[in-house]
Write a structure and sequence with these properties.
The two termini are 16 Å apart. The longest helix has 38 residues. This protein folds into 2 domains: 161 residues, no CATH class; 209 residues, no CATH class. The chain is built from 17 helices and no strands. 68% of the residues lie in helices and 0% in strands. It is globular. 42% of the residues are buried.
Length: 477
C-alpha cells in the first residue's frame, strides 16, 4: 500500500480510530491490531511475501531468547551465525542471486569462456533490506549484551512489522523502538498535531516536488545523447532533488504517522544538502542506515582504531557495501566507493567531525567559507548521483562524457523553468527552517501565519501535485 494512495487515505484513519478506541489499558490488543494492520499494509502489494517477514521475525525472536539463555560463547556465536544466515540468506537470494550469477558469467566471458547460465526471474520483495537490517540489529545487540531479548512475541512481531516504517525506514534499533511496544501509549495531542504537520510536508515533497521532477529526469537520462551539458546538469540537479524529496518525504510521512499512534521514530534526514563536507552529509542523509553501517560494519572492522592502511580499507569496504545494499547493480557499488573516496581526505586529516553545528547558525546566509563548502559538497554529491541514477556503469560514463564535452546552447531551457523553480523553492524553505525537525514545524509562529502555511501547502498539493500514486524510489531497495 502506498502512502500517496486512496487506500491509505482510508486505511490510516480507520486503524487510528480502532487503535485508540481500544484504550491505553489494552496496549497488548493495540499491538495485535498493529500486527494485523501492518500485514494488510504490506500484503496489499503482494501477500505471498508476508511469509518472509514472519520467518525473519520468528527466527530472531527464538534466537534472541536462546542467545540470552546460554552462557557458552561458542553457542552464542553459533546462534548469531544462524541469525545472520537466515536474514542475509533470504536477502541475498531475493536481491542478489541474479546479480552474482550474471557477474560471474561476465567474468567467465572475459576469460574467453561462453557459459550457458540461466537466471531465475526473482521478484524483489518491497522493503526487504529495511526490515532485515532492523531484525539483524536486534540479535547483534543481544550478542553484544547491549540489550536483553523480549519474551513478548506479540510486541516483537509488532516491532518488526510496524507499518509506518516497514518498507522504507527509518531503520529502527530494538533498544529505541521495541520498549515502546512493551508499555502503554498515551495519546499526545501536541505530538499528533506535529505528526500531521510532518506528514503534510512529506506529502508535499513527494507529490509536488519529486513526482513533478521524475519525468524530466527519466527523459534526460534516457535521451542523454540528444542533450548538451547544461541540460544533463539540470537533469542531475533534478534527480538530486527528486530522490531527496521522495525518500525524505517517505520518512516524514512515516515519522508523522507513528506519532499518531504514540510512537517516536528516529530522525532520518537533517537537511543534508546544506552539508559543508561529505562527512557531514552522511551524518544528515539517511541517518538510520548510515549509523547502522557505522555500528555494525565500520566499527567491527576496526574503525579508526587500527593502522592507516586498514582505516582506508575499512572506509572503502563500508561505503562499497552500503552502495551494494541499495541495489544489485555495479552502479551502486561505484556510487558507494566514490563517496568513500570523498570521505578519505577528511579521515586522513582527522576532520570527519569538523562540522557538527548548524550551518550559518544565527545568520540568514552562510559565510563565504561555509557557502564554498556547501557548494563543493553538493557538486560532489551530484557527480555521484549520476552513477546512482544510471542504468549501468557504461551508461553513467557516457552521460558524464556527454556532459563535459558538449558545447552548451542554452536553448530549450524554458521547458524546465517550472521544475527549476520548484526545486529551488524547496531548498529555500528548508534552509529557512534548517534549525527545525522538519520544514513545516511552525509551532512558534502566530496562529494566522501557521494556518496560511498549512493551507498554502495543501493548496500546492491539490493544484501542483501529481496524483498518479507513483511508488517511492526506495521501495526498490
Amino acid at each position: 500500500m502506498l502512502f500517496n494512495s486512496l487506500p491509505f487515505a482510508v486505511f490510516l484513519p480507520l486503524v487510528f480510530a480502532v487503535y485508540w478506541l481500544l484504550g491505553r489499558s489494552h496496549f497488548r490488543a493495540q499491538n495485535v491490531l498493529l500486527i494485523g494492520a501492518s500485514y494488510v499494509f504490506y500484503g496489499w502489494w503482494d501477500w505471498r511475501f508476508l511469509f518472509l517477514i514472519i520467518v525473519s521475525s520468528l527466527a530472531d525472536f527464538i534466537i534472541g531468547m536462546q542467545m540470552q539463555d546460554t552462557k557458552a560463547p561458542g553457542r552464542r556465536k553459533l546462534l548469531l551465525m544462524l541469525s545472520l544466515g537466515v536474514n542475509l540468506g533470504i536477502l541475498g537470494f531475493f536481491k542478489y542471486f541474479n546479480f552474482f550469477v550474471d557477474s560471474f558469467a561476465d567474468v567467465l566471458a572475459v576469460a574467453g569462456l561462453q557459459p550457458n547460465m540461466t537466471t531465475l526471474r526473482i521478484i524483489l520483495p518491497v522493503g526487504i533490506s529495511f526490515y532485515t537490517f532492523q531484525t539483524l540489529s536486534y540479535t547483534l545487540d543481544i550478542y553484544r549484551r547491549q540489550i536483553e531479548p523480549t519474551r513478548d512475541a506479540v510486541s516483537f512481531f509488532a516491532f518488526v512489522s510496524f507499518f509506518p516504517q516497514l518498507v522504507a525506514g527509518p531503520i529502527e534499533r530494538a533498544r529505541d523502538l521495541l520498549p515502546q511496544f512493551l508499555r502503554p501509549r498515551v495519546f499526545d495531542q501536541l505530538a499528533a498535531r506535529d505528526g500531521l504537520r510532518q506528514m503534510l510536508w512529506g506529502f508535499f515533497k513527494k507529490i509536488v516536488i519529486a513526482d513533478s521532477l521524475a519525468p524530466h529526469v527519466e527523459e534526460i537520462y534516457r535521451n542523454y545523447a540528444q542533450h548538451d551539458g547544461i541540460v544533463i546538469a539540470i537533469g542531475t540537479f533534478f534527480f538530486a532533488i527528486q530522490i531527496y524529496c521522495d525518500f525524505s518525504g517517505y520518512s516524514d510521512i512515516a515519522i508523522g504517522s507513528a506519532r499518531l499512534f504514540g510512537f517516536n521514530l528516529r530522525r532520518n534526514f537533517a537537511f543534508p544538502y546544506f552539508s559543508r563536507d561529505i562527512a557531514e552529509f552522511w551524518r544528515r542523509w539517511h541517518i538510520s542506515l548510515s549509523t547502522w553501517f557505522r555500528d555494525y560494519v565500520f566499527i567491527p572492522l576496526g574503525g579508526n582504531r587500527c593502522s592507516r592502511n586498514r582505516q582506508i580499507l575499512n572506509i572503502f569496504i563500508t561505503f562499497s557495501v552500503s552502495g551494494l545494499w541499495h541495489g544489485a547493480n555495479w552502479t551502486f557499488v561505484v556510487w558507494g566507493a566514490l563517496n568513500g573516496l570523498y570521505y578519505l581526505p577528511l579521515m586522513l586529516r582527522g576532520q570527519q567531525k569538523s562540522h557538527t553545528d548548524l550551518p550559518a547558525e544565527g545568520r540568514l546566509l552562510p559565510k563565504p567559507g561555509e557557502f564554498a563548502g556547501i557548494l563543493t559538497t553538493f557538486s560532489l554529491t551530484l557527480l555521484a548521483w549520476v552513477f546512482f541514477r544510471a542504468d549501468s556503469v557504461p551508461h553513467a560514463l557516457a552521460i558524464l562524457g556527454r556532459a563535459f564535452t558538449t558545447v552548451p546552447h542554452f536553448t530549450g531551457l524554458e521547458l524546465y523553468h517550472r521544475s527549476l523553480f520548484l526545486g529551488v523553492l524547496v531548498l529555500i524553505i528548508e534552509w529557512l527552517q534548517r534549525d527545525k525537525e522538519h520544514a513545516l514545524d511552525c509551532r512558534i509562529w502566530p496562529v494566522p501565519t501557521r494556518w496560511v502555511a498549512y493551507l498554502s501547502t495543501v493548496l500546492a498539493i491539490i493544484v501542483l501535485g501529481n496524483f498518479g500514486s507513483t511508488e517511492f524510489i526506495y521501495f526498490q531497495f
